[in-house]
Amino acid sequence: MGVGCGLMGGFVVTRKLSLFGDTLSHAVLPGVAVGFLWSQSKNSISIIVGAMIAGFLGVFLISLLKKTTRIGLDSALGLVLSGFYAVGICLLTRIQKMEFGNQSGIDRYLFGQITGISASDVWAMGISCILIALITMIFYKELLVTGFDHGFAHSIGLPVDFLQYLLWMLLAFAVITSLQVIGVILVSALLIIPAATASIITQKMRNLLVWSALLGMVAGVIGSYISFLGSRLPTGPIIVLISTLIFILTLFFHSQNGLLFKWLRLRGKERKIALENTLKAVYQELEGNKFSEDSVRLGNLAKRRRVSMPEMYQEAIHLVKKELAFLIPVKNQNLPSENTLTLSPAGWSEACRIVRNHRLWELYLTNEVQYAADHVHEDAEKIEHVLGDETVRKIERILSNPRRDPHGKLIPSRQDIEQGFIEKMVAKNLS
Amino acid sequence: MNEFFPPLDLVDTFWMPWATSKDFIWNAQIVTMGIMVSLSCGLIGSFIVARKLALMGDAISHGILPGLAIAFIATQSKALFPMFIGACGAGLLCSFCIEWLAKKTPLKMDAALGLTFTSFFALGVLLITQMGNNAHIDAECLLYGEIGFTPLAESITWGSIEIGSRPLLSIGTVTIIIISIITIFYKQLLVTSFDQTLSVSLGLPVRTIHYGLMLLLAITIVASFESVGVILVIAMLIFPSTTASFFFTRMPAILFCSIPLSIIYSLGGFFLARWLDCSIAASMVVVAMLCFGIAWAFGPEDGVVTKLFLKRNQN
Predict the structure, then answer these.
(1) How far apart are CA B146 and CA B30, in angstroms?
(2) From A74, A186, A191, residue closest to B54, measured CB to CB
(3) What is the secondary structure of chain B as a DSSP string?
(4) Is B235 in contact with A17 (Cβ distance < 8 A)?
């Protein structure tokens, strides 16, 4: 059952039909009740037929409402959902007051109870599960195309409407078969949650379907096992909560798309950018002094970077740890801004690289892309951290190894980077 | 099948409930409750529908269930205030979760919605079933509600004067609050519902109004869940304004329309339930559905038959 719902869920979620499943699952209730009334027993065939008809009626009504009125899709869904559900409840409460209605079991369609399942129910579930799997396999391509690009599917001559109805039928099937285990209200959870989890794990439709079926199955097995253990534990909610738990775990801890790792990566990047910005600030500070000194005061750096002194100090420590600079503390501890920072050779070449990236990019934007010179800084401020060596070479070739940026400042050349301090001294002498 | 529809005994259905003064008081309370519930829901619902948040209402009405359950476990009573705190907490948490999921993760809005409220709902159902039989509250009561129990609820006394049963009183307060808030903030609500950009440029606190409306929604749901249950509340929210929209296009008219509609729903539901001997709340929604169907077919604004008729006249 988990497999069936998971498979269908894959299509449902990618088609943005999640709430459709919800509506359908509520809408089958009067069908269940009428089916029960018809056979006057808990005969699963008449109930399934009734539920099918009710489900289709619901879907039909929604599309009719969409076509003939100005009512939004969300309201139409809500109308059909609650209206049908109310009819269902009306019928159910009526049935409970009639003499044959006392046979227990009809209310377990609301919440589901796995222990009350008969062998024929299991067979029905197995068959529908296999059917859903088979049909998805046969029509995989067609369903995929119609799911993602309706217009295209129509233009290549696929029977879009037929496929739509096929999908709805399968959906109704999946909902109905899981009714007994999980109950009317929570079926939609089983449609949505495994597929949502799978959509975090993978982007490919095929993998998504497999994952979502697998996750549905896992949640189903664990959930029903737990509810089997406790005496008063309803199966449906437990299965749903298990799959929510899986979803939350995946959301945070998945190795590539998990939020935790994304956050860590982002932090790493932010740190790198801060580091590079500090290096750049050191370079600019040195340049401001026409390279007459080889160290800068932290106070000036902090002003240039627009950060507070303690923050600046932290960053300086960070630089020292990475062996990119040396910190020369002053004797007087009350004046932390008088501490001076000197770049190591490695730090120097790194600083040159960043400044070079920045200025090259500015030049590229003004010369090749025809930006105004006063518009390029913002852009360069971002791109300087991500330009790779190869791109830099390419830009250099395009601009034929320029020496000055649009603001008239010197672009540090590759020699600067490689030779380090020597070139700096040359620059000092020149100026 | 025949025994399903008992013969319609006109006297029994329409007259007996009002025959004696005791019955009259009893049933009048039920009907009043129904009217108040559908009135307050209908008023709020008009704005919810205009904002295309119908399913958000659905989500919140499911989402408050764990809050209600926790509040009940904590206080062991159905007093309005703790229930209200619990429900508002859960409802706001639910709407935050939905927005966070839709914005920060690759999930689409609808998937985020479905995921959040079904999980909340599952948690709520689990909590309620764990409370066992000693509780006065049970899953059935929360989910479909039983408006017929309204007169049974303990009545609140103020000083030595008995002023009515608790659910009736709480829904009355809520109705008054809603009517006054809508009257006071009518313009702001209207603008933000229809034109977000304009209202931002007018300097209206759009987000505050949005969450305020959500809060009102939560209050309404809390006050009415006992009588109609969390699932049918959504019907009460959507049906009045969509039905009215077949007759009128202007917001004030739609809002006023919820008054006669709520009376029709309540009385109709009551008689239907009396006839078929089934849940009153569900019958109210069935009546609402019938009204909607009639409006859909014959409404002067957009009704199907009306349109056909107009077309024929033109030809």
Answers:
(1) 10
(2) A74
(3) -GGGS----HIIIIIHHHHSHHHHHHHHHHHHHHHHHHHHHHHHHHHHHHTT-HHHHHHHHHHHHHHHHHHHHHHSS--HHHHHHHHHHHHHHHHHHHHHHHHHSS--HHHHHHHHHHHHHHHHHHHHHHT-TTSS--HHHHHH--GGGGGGSPEEEETTEEEEEHHHHHHHHHHHHHHHHHHHTHHHHHHHHH-HHHHHHTT--HHHHHHHHHHHHHHHHHHHHHHHHHHHHHHHHHHHHHHHTTT--SHHHHHHHHHHHHHHHHHHHHHHHHHHT--HHHHHHHHHHHHHHHHHHH-TTT-HHHHHHHHHHH-
(4) no
Do residue B49 and residue A93 have CB atoms under 8 angstroms apart? no
pTM of the model: 0.72
- At residue B4, the pLDDT reads 57
- Does residue A425 surpass a pLDDT of 60? no
Write out pLDDT tens, residues A363-394: 888 887 777 777 777 777 777 777 777 888 88
Q: How far is B233 from chain A (nearest CA, A)?
A: 8
Q: Give the residue from B288, B257, B224 showing the smallest Cα distance to B32.
A: B224
Kindly determine whether residue A97 and residue B277, on different chains, have CB atoms separated by under 8 Å: yes
Q: Give the rounded percent of residues in chain B with a pLDDT score beyond 90.
A: 0
User: Is the CB of residue B157 less than 8 Å away from at least one CB of chain A?
Assistant: no
Q: Which two tokens stand for residue A372?
A: 């105004």
Chain A residue nearest residue B101, CA to CA: A251
Question: Which residue in the set A82, A111, A200 is minimally distant from B125, CB to CB?
Answer: A111
Do A90 and B53 make contact, defined as CB atoms within 8 angstroms? no
Inter-chain residue contact B296 with A68, CB threshold 8 Å: yes
Could you tell me the two tokens for A404? 């000055």
CA B194 to chain CA centroid, nearest Å: 22
Residues of B in contact with A171 (CB under 8 A): none
Q: Is the pLDDT at A431 greater than 60, yes or no?
A: no
CA distance A161 to chain B (A): 23
The CA distance from B309 to the nearest CA of chain A, in Å, is 14
Q: How far is the C-alpha of B187 from the C-alpha of A208, rounded, in Å?
A: 47
Q: What is the ipTM of this complex?
A: 0.79
Q: Is B174 on the interface with A (CB under 8 A)?
A: no
Instruction: State what percent of residues in chain A have pLDDT above 90.
Output: 0
